Prior knowledge:
The chain is α+β, with helices and mostly antiparallel strands. It is 17% helix and 28% strand. It has eight helices and 30 strands. The strands form eight sheets. It has a five-stranded mixed beta sheet. It has a five-stranded mixed beta sheet with strand order 12-18-17-14-15. The longest helix has 21 residues, at 2-22. It is flat. Mean pLDDT is 72; it is low at 1-23, 131-154, 265-292 and 401-457. Bound molecules: 2-acetamido-2-deoxy-beta-D-glucopyranose (12 copies).
Amino acid sequence: MARGMNMLVLMVLLGAAIQSCSAQTTHVVGDSLGWVVPPGGAIAYSTWAANETFVVGDTLVFNFTTGMDDVAKVTKAAYDSCNSTSPISRWTNGPATITLNQSGEHFFISTFDRRCSLGEKLAINVSAASGPAPAPTTTPTPPAASAPVPTTTPTRSPVTYTVGDGVGWNVLVNTTQAYELWAANKTFMVGDILVFNFVNGTQNVAEVTKSAFDSCNITSTISVYAVPPVRITLTTPGEHFYTSTYPNRCSLGQKLAITVSAAPTPTPAPSTTPTPPAASAPAPATASATTPTRSPVTYTVGEGVGWNVLVNTTQAYALWAANKTFMVGDTLVFNFVNGTQNVAEVTKSAYDSCNTTSTISVYTVPPVRIILATPGEHFYTSTYPDRCSLGQKLAINSFSTFYHHHAFSNRLCHPSVHRQLGRLFERHWLVLGDVVCRRCVVVLDYSSLLFPPFTAW
Ligand SMILES: *[C@@H]1O[C@H](CO)[C@@H](O)[C@H](O)[C@H]1NC(C)=O
Ligand SMILES: *[C@@H]1O[C@H](CO)[C@@H](O)[C@H](O)[C@H]1NC(C)=O
Ligand SMILES: *[C@@H]1O[C@H](CO)[C@@H](O)[C@H](O)[C@H]1NC(C)=O
Ligand SMILES: *[C@@H]1O[C@H](CO)[C@@H](O)[C@H](O)[C@H]1NC(C)=O
Ligand SMILES: *[C@@H]1O[C@H](CO)[C@@H](O)[C@H](O)[C@H]1NC(C)=O
Ligand SMILES: *[C@@H]1O[C@H](CO)[C@@H](O)[C@H](O)[C@H]1NC(C)=O
Ligand SMILES: *[C@@H]1O[C@H](CO)[C@@H](O)[C@H](O)[C@H]1NC(C)=O
Ligand SMILES: *[C@@H]1O[C@H](CO)[C@@H](O)[C@H](O)[C@H]1NC(C)=O
Ligand SMILES: *[C@@H]1O[C@H](CO)[C@@H](O)[C@H](O)[C@H]1NC(C)=O
Ligand SMILES: *[C@@H]1O[C@H](CO)[C@@H](O)[C@H](O)[C@H]1NC(C)=O
Ligand SMILES: *[C@@H]1O[C@H](CO)[C@@H](O)[C@H](O)[C@H]1NC(C)=O
Ligand SMILES: *[C@@H]1O[C@H](CO)[C@@H](O)[C@H](O)[C@H]1NC(C)=O
């Protein structure tokens, strides 16, 4: 059974190798992370995708172990809600190689357990293929391809971006960072088109200088476009700044800054060829190894801005936390002026509703140093009036440190065992990400050793 699975993996790998000869670019989803519940949540894959250029004909490789995970192509709605009821397609053999044969947005999720809602989801935008420009590159391939395979690097076709997507070009009541966030994961190139949608007579689009943009002093402009939809073709590389000349629009957040690159850039070749998996070797029966452990990190919440209500944004702490990995043993430092703030750890519901009538703990003397003692979600705000609703709130997810790799018998890598492990961990830690069963290696968090020995299963 296990031997059969290994053969299957090998066959899939060989298939991938054959396919990659004709493919344009092979994107290994998440790079070395693979297709897992990412430690920091879904941002891992959106950050990864933001850095890649997907063109029709490219292939995605979702690296997971057959039976332990899967990948499903779904609609945007299913992606947003993590609804795996009726996927468009589903791949159950890992690593799954998927050829992108259509332009536009593509959405992928894992249908296993709560993996999607824990961040195992990927959204990409695929542009239409254009004339391939030959360039040598190294394709990551398993040992079947012993020599680097020359392949073609696609140039990128112009992309039409609808600014703000569905919300259009407007002042948004709930945020001043809508356009900053919208632009954050996009690549703009000369030849691309920006489309600004708005109701005729209620807005305009003004291209302005950086200083006008920064100060929101819009007395002079580079160009103003008044008739919607405004279509601006990006003709020059460098920074471009857009806002509206209507009163207060700029300071209310109706402003977009983008950086346009000179020309379609070839997808960078991987600097190193990933070590091919030893797919044909049987998994070790019993073994134990430790991963390099990570030293505790001290994080200064908000860095230089400290712990405060920030006039210009309600998302400062969400953005601050977004690209960080918190682990048990790490320290959070909250800096503020004595007597002007406090730090309250609260429940998720108190955090979500900004009802701070009851708290888990309150720390009043700055600098507040909190050592993350337990894995899972932690929520912090201030009990001072209105601070929470003005954005002085921080949610983090801390993971158990001191990972141990335990290689078990093939029997223990059976999907049903993995599901038991997943449920166990969900129940105890709410962190499915602490358990990753790959190639018959179960990665467990150290504290799991408190649980009954696995031979019980
Ligand atoms: C870009 O970010 C937005 C929201 O932050 C998200 O909805 C979208 O899927 C992201 N796109 C890509 C390609 O990651
Ligand atoms: C994006 O890619 C560049 C070049 O390949 C790399 O230096 C950079 O670290 C990447 N950024 C992220 C966020 O992965
Ligand atoms: C999930 O999607 C299916 C079909 O697409 C739909 O019938 C079902 O109501 C959805 N479930 C939820 C919870 O939205
Ligand atoms: C596009 O890819 C999907 C999934 O990879 C496949 O089901 C479909 O048949 C392909 N379409 C074409 C036209 O090749
Ligand atoms: C802000 O409101 C718009 C609709 O006006 C909505 O699409 C968007 O998700 C909201 N953003 C946040 C951060 O709540
Ligand atoms: C748009 O509004 C302007 C006045 O603000 C008006 O002159 C123009 O005719 C309108 N155009 C359209 C297409 O409605
Ligand atoms: C706005 O900028 C103009 C020049 O572009 C300058 O003359 C004016 O003083 C500035 N106004 C303010 C309030 O800074
Ligand atoms: C897939 O993951 C395994 C380890 O989990 C690794 O050895 C292998 O190189 C990865 N494959 C790719 C294509 O990244
Ligand atoms: C908000 O203001 C702080 C200083 O109070 C500054 O450091 C930060 O860059 C500003 N953020 C934005 C998005 O303007
Ligand atoms: C996290 O984001 C900040 C600003 O957005 C950036 O300065 C920092 O380098 C990022 N850190 C990592 C680890 O990507
Ligand atoms: C901090 O402020 C409190 C009152 O808000 C005061 O009792 C305490 O002495 C102050 N501590 C320091 C170190 O200034
Ligand atoms: C706030 O939470 C407390 C319990 O923690 C509850 O008694 C109170 O009704 C809540 N207030 C509001 C406005 O929901």
